[in-house]
Amino acid sequence: MKKLFLSLFLVCLSSQVAFAHQPVLVFENEVQVSDPEVSKAYYSELQGEPQVYRIVSNESFELYANILVPDLEDQRQDFVVIVREKFGDNPPVVYMDGSKFEWTRFFEVFGRDWYFKGPEFRTNLEPGEYELIVSNDGFQGKYALAVGEKEVFGVKEIFGTLKVLPKLKRDFFEVSPAGLLLSPFGAGYVIFTFVLAWIFGFLYRVILRRMAKSKVRRAHKNIGTMDRLFRFVLAVLFFVVAVLTSWNPVLLFISGFCLFEAVFSWCGLNAALGKSTCPL
Length: 280
Description:
disordered N terminus, alpha+beta, single chain, six-stranded mixed beta sheet, 6 helices, elongated
């Protein structure tokens, strides 16, 4: 059963995340980048200081990086990205000045967000310790730093993305998290959660009906029109609260289960108590 759920989950979502960077929210001025060849996108905002991304590698590796900014009013594009060796006085390996670059506006389908894409680079580096520094004049402004090109998206990464995307919508792009409904990822997440809730509802129903001794408890329907309407309203309320806030999977699951009871005119609690509010 566990493998079935995981397979369904991956079918709903993996085809859409295969071309996306793993999103990472940054709250510190120093960040350790593990496995720099794996595709990640670091979302942050300069607040009076430069931010440093540290890379330690015992092997030669290819480093790719691209800086982007959200398409917001008064958003700055004068970011400077420097890559240098942590030790020694060697000149920077890479120096990118966003103020001298023509940024390109583009739409990212995965999250359905608008960005301006800035300078990017790709270079081979020897084993060692490096610092990737993001700054600008005054150290202010939101940015996303894409690092790496190797796509790695398993179940762990998908669940991590589910937690991050609503916060990105609200805090980084300054739009409602409900906008995720229009994205392939958000739609797939809702479908998966509702399918899971309905599977649970069917199993719950089969078990209780088999254990029942009375006709009332074995009934195919046990709630009337008003009770069905009440459950439908509950389903809508839980759904709205979920998509407007954190996309909590528990709230979405409850929404799906309430919808199941409304559609099939059957309530597990009524069955357990031997009650019915509809003609049998």
